[in-house]
Amino acid sequence: MSHLNNSMNTYNDLSYFASLNSGYTDLPIYGIVTDATRIQWKPQNMKYATTIRIIDSTWSQESHPVGYVPFIKVLFIGNNKNDIPDIKQLGAIIKFNGGLLRVIKEDEYKTIAFLWNKGNEKGYWKIIDENPIDDIEKIKSLRDFARNYFEKQILMELTQNLSTARATNEVSNIIVKVIKVKEEKKLEDSYKLIKVMDHTDKAYLVISEAEKEEFSYIQIQDFILIKGARYTDLATRRIELRENGNIIRLPNYLKLLNEYQSTINIFINETTIETVIEEKKLMTPIEVSIVKNNSLPISSLKIATDANALYGMKYRVKVYVIEMGPEDIRQWVKGYCDECKKFFDLTIRDEVSICNVCKGIGRMVYQVQLFVKDKELRDDPEIYRILLWTHDGKGEDFFGEKPVNCYRSEYLYKKLEAIYKKLTQYNVYLDCIVERMGRGTNTFIQINDTIINSIT
Fold this sequence. Notes:
Blueprint: E1 3-4, H1 14-18, E2 22-25, E3 29-36, E4 40-42, E5 47-55, E6 72-78, E7 93-97, E8 100-105, E9 112-117, E10 124-127, H2 136-157, H3 162-168, E11 171-186, E12 189-197, E13 202-208, E14 223-233, E15 238-249, H4 255-281, E16 286-287, E17 289-291, H5 301-304, E18 314-325, E19 333-337, E20 342-344, E21 363-374, E22 384-389, H6 410-423, E23 428-439, E24 442-448, E25 450-452
Parallel strand pairs: 1-2, 6-9, 13-15, 16-23, 22-24
Antiparallel strand pairs: 2-8, 3-5, 3-7, 4-5, 5-6, 7-10, 8-9, 11-12, 11-14, 12-13, 14-15, 17-25, 18-21, 18-23, 19-20, 19-21, 21-22, 23-24
């Protein structure tokens, strides 16, 4: 077993440590925390455990090829919760001496994982506070590096906002601001309700009685990163953490948060004004569509999506549109090959649609998804997906415009953008015909015989 000791320093850089396959260390290791799991009880080995990702300037994106985000993954194990670090904030500087280590090297650029076990008496860890006593220059350089790293990397890793998360019911890597924290009680259960907001929507994070102590550090005005959660009630926008989910504070030195605050302020102001107007309009929602067969009785999406609904059956429904996709409106128009029966993406170069399989000339069609709630069934918590795929002629008049390449047509792009903004307004609803399509388990509902008639 090798002896981890870089004699030039009083500590080990991560690059030096990562170059080794196994060993034990007499010198401490410093790292910047970029991710962490909650402390969890592992019944299989009767221990508490948490996994932390760390980097430093010698082992980070700057020292590796483009496309790789290297880090070292540390698994901390202890008999008690206090034996291992409970990370509350990204960018924290951790110092530890691992005692006996077992290093697992996956490949040259990806994760390097090792085990820290409290069972060794020499092992220790410490979260560095604002006024360190030892290795002051080292810690200063780590903090400077952390500032630059997070300004660049946080934006790269964010893939969601609250609005898109509500449409997919998957909350991962979302930055939100804490607006309000209060205690709630329902029957015998008490819990903490945290109101959060980003620039697209608001939500309520439910912290159970068992989780209260774990997340007691969360305060009003904090910016937090929510990882691994789900909506438990779409109507009331309530979110709960999954078993492996976590909430971590963001460092307040990030310039990004000032910009984020500005967009949230705009959203809050607009929402406050719109809420007053919308509350007055709740009794008279705005209809923005007409159906070609208005003799059909009003039905519900629950009936249209029921397993017993017949193929080709048409239903008239009234829905509120929560979200539409793809997110890039220019991708609402696709190429379609009648020969190959395939959709394909368009680019700004495409004056006509050329099939990327058979190279024949295809045609342009709409391929859009609408995530909706049933207007008539107010107690139905479900969000339904309706397709607008016009390759077979169904729904082809919906937007009132022939599909053309939106990368080249500014007119169509602006019109679709205006329709999107109108349809997703709070008090706007669609009166539309949907048709049950598909066979067996591969069934879906598709818009047909419906036209948008007002976007003013």
